[in-house]
Amino acid sequence: MDPAWLAARGNGYVGEVVEFIPGQGKPPAAVVALDDELVLPHGAGEVQGKPVRGRFLVLELGHVGTDWSPHRPRIHVELCEERPLAVRWQDRPRGAWVESHATYDVMRRNHGLR
C-alpha cells in the first residue's frame, strides 16, 4: 500500500522512540516523537471535521507473535497531537488512526518510518 500521506515523503518520517506504553495487545506500543509536526494532506484523513495533525506517533505491532526486533514487521500508526499517556490503550485519549500497513527502519542517528 502507498497511502498518499506516506508516499508524499518517500524517505519516511523522522523521529525518536521516547517510550513504550501499554498497547491494544500484549506487546507494548512504541511512542515516537517526530522531529516535525505531521499534517496530513487534504483527503488523507479527518477527525470530526478537523485536519489530522500531531507530533507523536503510536506504533502498534500488526501481527500476533511479532516483536520490536529490527526485522520490519507490519505496524499500525496512530497520530497524536499530544504525547499519549502511558496507560492501557482502552484508558487513554486516542489520536487519529492513520495507517495499518506501515513499516519502520531503525537507524543509529536518525529514525525513519515508512
Task: Name a few traits of the molecule.
seven-stranded antiparallel sheet, 1 helix, 4% helix, 44% strand, globular
Explain this structure to me?
Helices cover 4% and strands 44% of the residues. It is built from one helix and nine strands; from the N terminus they run αβββββββββ. A seven-stranded antiparallel beta sheet has the order 7-6-5-2-1-9-8, with no helix packed on it. Strands 3-4 form a two-stranded antiparallel ribbon. The protein has one domain. It is mainly beta and 114 residues long. The longest helix is centred in the N-terminal third of the chain and has 4 residues, at 4-7.
How many independent structural domains?
1
What is the average per-residue confidence, as pLDDT, rounded to a whole number?
80
Note the gap between the termini: 11 Å
Q: Give the radius of gyration.
A: 13 Å
In terms of DSSP E residues, the strand content is 35-45%
Instruction: Give the proportion of residues in helices.
Output: under 10%
Reading the helices and strands in chain order gives HEEEEEEEEE
- Regarding quaternary structure, how should these chains be classified? single chain
* Spatial order of the strands forming the largest sheet: 7-6-5-2-1-9-8
The description of the largest β-sheet is:
7 strands, antiparallel
Give the low-confidence spans: none
Give me the number of helical elements: 1
Structural class: mainly beta
Tell me, briefly, the overall form: globular
Write down how many β-strands occur, each being a DSSP E stretch of 2 or more residues. 9
